[in-house]
Design brief:
This protein is an alpha/beta fold and 335 residues long. 41% of the residues lie in helices and 17% in strands.
């Protein structure tokens, strides 16, 4: 016996069954009692399941293109943080992958019986939120936020982090600072660019557009793109680069080194995320440490607040600060 079976017997939609079993608004009392009666008669007792600790949170991994959201240590740590916090709070975690198909999302939400949703919004655009706006359960967005959208969200403090990284380059004497930015747009990268510009503006530095290199946000892609730029354009290089993420930084460093550029003697590089390979890169990569597991745990805690207080109407934007990790890829500019 599942929700679809109950819906067929009651003559209602799976979404109505889900709302009735979870005590959500929008279901007439007569319909609700009919659904609960069928569920009890055929062995589906939601209240008993919850009493036995079978409470569930669904984590929706949304992939618009899958270029950024992929099988990397960053997202593995994020998921681990969610899993650990769910376990600590007595909730079961269900993970669903959705690939930019509205039908897939609607089908998932109609048959869902979880108490709430955490949605990985890294690759989302504003219009991708539409299927989630009218569902009658708590929703928390993870790793992105959208102006004008009334959703709770937990994310990295991207602007402050990139500002911090760029300011460190300035403090080391760099005046010509380039930007290794992703050729694929996501909100996080947009706000990192704003923080980068803020640090330059504060230091009275003008950004040279010749030092703006668009690279694929993967190690292989950024290596390929940087290598092509170096071979085809033979550009003048800045004395330092800030990269949108460690994958871009690492791929670009390899291409620069293959081209005879010494790091950090000729060009300094600073990344973002603090991936495990930063410690074994040559040179070891200076970067911004993101507290990935803590961000995942914070998303669960905020969702549980909303589940436990169904009358709460305010939404929160929670930005988690970062830490600058100094290693070997940044030095003073060459004299």
């Amino acid at each position: 016996m599942n929700i679809t079976d109950i819906a067929t017997m009651a003559g209602v939609s799976p979404a109505t069954v889900s709302n009735a079993l979870n005590g959500r608004k929008g279901v007439r009392e007569e319909t609700k009692q009919k659904i609960l009666k069928i569920a009890k008669e055929f062995g589906y007792n939601k209240e008993m399941n919850m009493a036995n600790g079978q409470r569930t949170i669904r984590f929706v991994i949304y992939k618009k293109h899958g270029v950024v959201v992929s099988d990397t240590p960053f997202f593995a740590s994020l998921i681990e943080g969610i899993e650990n916090e769910c376990r600590n709070q007595g909730y079961e975690l269900l993970i669903s992958h959705v690939y930019h198909e509205c039908e897939d999302i609607v089908s998932l939400l109609e048959s869902d019986y979880s108490q709430g949703l955490i949605v990985l919004a890294t690759e989302m655009a504003f219009e991708d939120l539409l299927p989630f706006r009218d569902i009658n359960m708590p929703v928390v967005l993870l790793d992105s936020h959208f102006r004008g959208a009334d959703f709770d969200c937990i994310l990295i403090n991207n602007m402050d982090a990139s500002y911090k990284a760029t300011k460190y380059l300035v403090q080391n004497g760099h005046r010509e600072i380039g930007y290794l930015h992703s050729s694929v747009y996501i909100n996080n990268f947009h706000y990192r660019k704003l923080g980068f510009w803020d640090a330059l503006h504060e230091a009275d530095l003008e950004f040279n557009p010749d030092f703006d290199f668009a690279l694929n946000p993967t190690i292989e892609g950024s290596y390929r793109d940087m290598k092509a730029i170096l071979e085809q354009r033979a550009p003048k290089l800045p004395t330092a680069f800030f990269a949108d993420n460690d994958l871009i930084a690492f791929g670009a460093m390899r291409a620069l080194q293959d081209h005879g550029v010494k790091i950090p003697q000729d060009v300094s590089v600073i990344g973002f995320d603090d991936m495990p390979f930063c410690e074994i890169a040559s040179p070891r990569l200076t970067t911004i440490r993101v507290f990935k597991q803590e961000i995942g745990g914070a998303a669960v805690r905020r969702l549980l607040q909303k589940i436990e207080n169904s009358k709460e109407t305010i939404t929160q934007k929670i930005e988690v600060n970062t830490e600058l990790i100094i290693r070997e890829s940044v030095s003073k500019p060459p004299s």
